[in-house]
Amino acid sequence: MSTPSHRRGDVREALRRDLQRRGRRSDSGEFWRALALLGGVGWPIALLAAGGAWWGHTLDARWKTGLQFTLLFLLLGVGLGGGMAWRLLRGRT
Predict the structure, then answer these.
(1) Among 51, 40, 17, which Cα is nearest to 87's?
(2) pTM check: above 0.70
């Protein structure tokens, strides 16, 4: 059994349209740009939060104050990291 010629033409036309659409789409590395932005936003928050928690834990161990400095510096790290991420995202728009 062979495929009718009118159906074969429809498939070819659809393929041609899809290839044209793909050619018009900007292939400028959107995936990698989005991944870089995600890393640029996440790392400052994570590093400053971890550094704050470490520094707070060190001070708590030295002065035996429980979790006061750990929580304080953890929140400060998250706040500073969030502020840096906000500035980064605001500069991109």
Answers:
(1) 40
(2) no
